[in-house]
Design a protein that fits this description.
Helices cover about 55% and strands about 10% of the residues. The chain is mainly α. The longest helix is centred in the N-terminal third of the chain and has 36 residues.
């Protein structure tokens, strides 16, 4: 009896002690802790469990326990390979296009050949120069601001600024760190591996001009290769007896005649010369590349029209701001005077996308 009573007392004492320890641990975890703000250097009292907090003086946002990933060497090699392939591909298109197309063009007349050669030179220079500007110039360097000292940083001086743990400097809501480039980019739209660079505020216009000139060039190549291929294509042997009866036969018979003509056309491709094979390849490649880049160009112009970038559209940076869907965003982007929109039709100007 005494043993049972002592055992019961010891168990009850243990339960009371464990409950007190849990309450003490919960009280300690709910206590605030003090830390330094990276923006102004002042002491900030935050909750013990808070990993993200905002300074009440300068407005800087602090994120703790950030895991850094500095393995960017492989990405840089990937971008360099992409840039080399793209430049080689464009030079191949220009050289083989001139070799395959212009004998047929100069056969029409000497003036026609010189005219189209001048167009080729202009399109090639515009495409290569815009590519080099978008690929080899900085995408957008963030402005230098004062931070880390209380007297120098005023109230709200770093509002909604965050600290980049990779570059060890502050970044505004319009600045994003690119892990492929290893630097912070102002007005970042996206990282394009084909130019080996980010698309930001400094080279966004060059990137759009590169897409525009490339789309125009591919359309021109499609037209010229199709015209040249018709001149050097081997003759197609048609079944004349079937073609005469096709108008009086059933739809099934007409479909068979069409099928025979298509097969005859492809059988004649066996006798194509090397120039003809190159023309077919240029036609298919130009049509494919032009279609893909047209979609990308339309997407980019759509975001510019609403005053956003692709990245801000994804993370909704400007969701609380009033954004205008207007052609003034396009004219402002390309550097045209604001009075240009006065000559545009009224249906190009729409209402605001968001209203407060």
């Amino acid at each position: 009896m005494d043993f049972a009573t002592s055992a019961g007392r010891s168990t009850s004492d243990y339960d009371i002690t464990q409950t007190e320890e849990d309450q003490l641990a919960l009280a300690c975890s709910s206590e605030d802790r003090e830390t330094n703000c990276w923006g102004c250097g002042l002491r900030v009292s935050v909750a013990a469990y808070a990993s993200v907090f905002k300074c009440g003086w300068c407005g800087a946002i602090t994120k703790e326990h950030v895991v850094k990933n500095d393995s960017i060497r492989l990405r840089r090699w990937r971008d360099r390979c992409f840039v080399t392939v793209v430049i080689s591909f464009m030079l191949f298109f220009i050289c083989t296009g001139v070799w395959a197309v212009y004998p047929a063009i100069f056969s029409i007349s000497y003036f026609c050949g010189v005219f189209h050669l001048a167009i080729t030179v202009i399109l090639s220079v515009c495409t290569l120069s815009s590519f080099c500007l978008s690929a080899f110039q900085p995408a957008g360097v963030p402005p230098i601001i004062i931070w880390g000292s209380y007297p120098a940083v005023g109230q709200g001086g770093l509002q909604n600024y965050a600290f980049c743990h990779y570059c060890s400097k502050p970044k505004s809501p319009l600045v994003h760190h690119c892990r492929s480039c290893g630097t912070c980019v102002l007005g970042m739209d996206h990282h394009c591996p084909f130019i080996g660079n980010c698309v930001g505020s400094a080279n966004h216009r060059s990137f759009i001009l590169f897409l525009l000139s490339t789309v125009i060039s591919t359309i021109y190549v499609v037209i010229m290769t199709f015209y040249s291929a018709l001149h050097i294509w081997p003759p197609v042997e048609h079944n004349r007896s079937l073609s005469r009866l096709s108008g009086f036969a059933s739809p099934v018979f007409n479909f068979g005649v069409l099928k025979e003509n298509i097969l005859a056309f492809f059988r004649s491709a066996v006798f194509l010369s090397a120039r003809g094979v190159v023309l077919v390849y240029l036609f298919i490649a130009s049509f494919s590349v032009g279609t893909g880049l047209s979609v990308l160009l339309w997407q980019q112009l759509s975001f510019i029209y609403v005053g956003k970038t692709y990245l801000s559209h994804l993370i909704a940076v400007d969701s609380e701001e009033v954004m205008e869907r207007d052609c003034q965003n396009l004219t402002r982007f390309f550097g045209f005077p604001s009075k240009t929109t006065a000559y545009l039709p009224s249906y190009f100007k729409s209402r605001k996308a968001h209203e407060k």
